[in-house]
Each structure stands twice: as structure tokens, then as C-alpha cells.
Amino acid sequence: MPDVEQEKNRYLEHNNDVSDVRYQNFVKPIVNCILKDYTPQHTGLDFGAGTGPVISKLLHDKEYKIEQYDPLFHHFPGLLHRSYHYIACCEVIEHFHKPDKEFSLLYNLLANNGKLYCMTSVFKSKIDFRTWHYKDDPTHVFFYTERTFEYICNFFKFSGLQIINNLIILSK
Known about the structure:
The chain is of the alpha/beta class. It has a single domain (4-171), classed as Vaccinia Virus protein VP39 (Rossmann fold, 3-Layer(aba) Sandwich). It is built from five helices and six strands, in the order H-H-E-H-E-E-H-E-H-E-E. The chain has a six-stranded mixed sheet with strand order 2-1-3-4-6-5, sandwiched between helices.
């Protein structure tokens, strides 16, 4: 398992240019859901925003209020003492070393009736784990199945769960 400095260096290798149309299209499932479910008057958090906070950029372009938090690149702990209508976690939850602690935090950051939007590669039984590219990233330390998300939903008392391909929506 990589240490914090190795993780940071690995993230710096990613090409996360917020102006890259391919990158923008990649995050569109989360952005489109937020645009459908919320208005610019609602507050959001881009949790794990990383070096290229494209979700924040796309929502800011539509005049949405979204803060950026990332323990390595946008370390503003005060943001973790507020409440948000929605939280976006794009390609973040597979990096959680302590998913129970992180999901508890995310649940507590959500306002009542809020939504947590996550994107990650969901492991399915038809996938051959040995050849699955997603496991080859040393910073991917936790993998999820649909059953894992059902457990998370029930354990943390989320009121709803939707899984649409690699988009997971947990409602409070």
C-alpha cells in the first residue's frame, strides 16, 4: 500500500485538465444528475476534488455553489464542519483506506434529503479480477460491488440507493 507521498505523486501523474472535453464527458453523469436534482441556490461539495476539479468547474459555469475538498490538494478542514445538499465523489471512494470512517463523514456532511453522488468502477462477478485494469492502480485500495453499496446504504441509514453503471447515488 502506498504512503501519502507516493499517493500524491501518483495523482500528480493523472492528466486532469478541466478544459479537456473527454474529462468533462467522463464526469457528466454526476454533473447531469446534480443539474437535474438541484438548483444554483443549493450548496455542494466536490469531495476528493484532486488536481483538476472538473465537476466544480462545470457546476461553477452554471453558477452553482460547490466547495472543493481534498486531503492532498484542497485541504480546507473547515469545509468538513458544514452541511451540503449534495456531495460529488468522482473516482474517490476506491482510495478510501477506512471506508467506514469516510462514509460516516460523508453521511454526516449531507443535509436532510441530500444526495451523495459517487463514481467508481463497480466490480461484477462477470469480471475476471486477474485482468481487471482497475485493480492495477496501487492507490485503489478498496473495491465495491452492488452488494457493498446495499450494505453501505443500510448500515449508514441512507434512505435510498441507485446504481446506474458506475454512478452510485445514495440519498439521505
